[in-house]
Amino acid sequence: MDLLYLILLLALNALGVLLVALTLPGTWLILLLTAGYVWLLGEGRAGFGWGVLIALLGLAVLGEVLEFIAAAFGVQSAGGSRRASLGAILGGMVGAIAGTFLLPVPVVGSVLGAALGSFLGALLGERSRGSDLGRQVAVGKGAFWGRLFGTIAKLLIAAGMWIVVALAALL
User: Fold this and answer.
1) Do residues 49 and 169 touch, judged by C-beta distance below 8 A?
2) Using the 8-state DSSP alphabet, how is residue 79 labeled?
3) Strand ranges inside 15-136, DSSP E
4) What's the CA gap between 18 and 143, in Å, rounded?
5) CB of 162 closer than 8 Å to CB of 93
6) Closest Cα to residue 53, out of 40, 34, 28?
7) How far apart are the first and last CA of the chain?
8) How far apart are CA 15 and CA 68, in angstroms?
9) What is the SS3 assignment for 63?
10) Among candidates 92, 99, 83, which has minimal Cα distance to 143?
C-alpha cells in the first residue's frame, strides 16, 4: 500500500510541475501533497521527514520570488521606473491568465501570455511617466525577457522539487 501512495504522490507532484508550466502555483501543490504524504504515513517513512519538507518550502519560496521579481528586474536593468516594475508584475499575472485562454496551446499560451503581459504592463507604467516610445519599448522588452526567464527558472525549481521527492523516496 505504501508503494501505491508513493506512486500516486509522484504522479500528482508531476502534475504540480505541469501547473507551474501553466504559470499556476504548482510548487505549493507539490509541497502540500508531500506534507500530506508525510502526515498520512508518518514522519521518516520512505525517507520523508522535516528536512525534505523544509527543503521543498525553501524551493517553493525561491520559485515564487524569482518568478515575480524577474520581470521587475528586467525593467530595472533597462532603466525603467518603479511604475514600470509594478506594471510588469501586474501585467504578468493578468497576461498569464489571459494567455491560457486566448492562446490555447498548452504551456506556451500561459508562459507567452505572462511575458507579453509583463511587456505591456511595463510599457504602460513607463508611458504613465511620459517617457518616449523608444524607452517604453526598451523597458517592456526588459520586462518580457525577465518574466520569461523567471518562469523558466520556476519551472526548473519545480522539476527540482519533484526530484527531491523522488530521491527521498529512494532513500
Assistant:
1) no
2) T
3) none
4) 24
5) no
6) 34
7) 18
8) 21
9) helix
10) 92
Using only the alpha carbons of the chain, give its radius of gyration. 19
How many CB atoms are closer than 10 A to CB 164? Answer: 18
SS3 171: coil
CB 139 within 8 A of CB 127: no
CA 40 vs CA 29, 44, 73: distances in Å: 16, 11, 41
Could you give the CA distance from residue 169 to residue 163 in angstroms, rounded to a whole number?
Answer: 10
Q: For the segment 136-169, what is each residue's pLDDT rounded down to a tens digit?
A: 999 999 999 999 999 899 999 999 999 999 998 8
Q: Which residue has the cell 526588459?
A: 142
Long-range contacts (CB closer than 8 Å, 24 or more residues apart) made by 35-39 = 37/5, 37/6, 37/9
pTM of the model: 0.83
Q: Are 80 and 143 in contact (CB under 8 A)?
A: yes
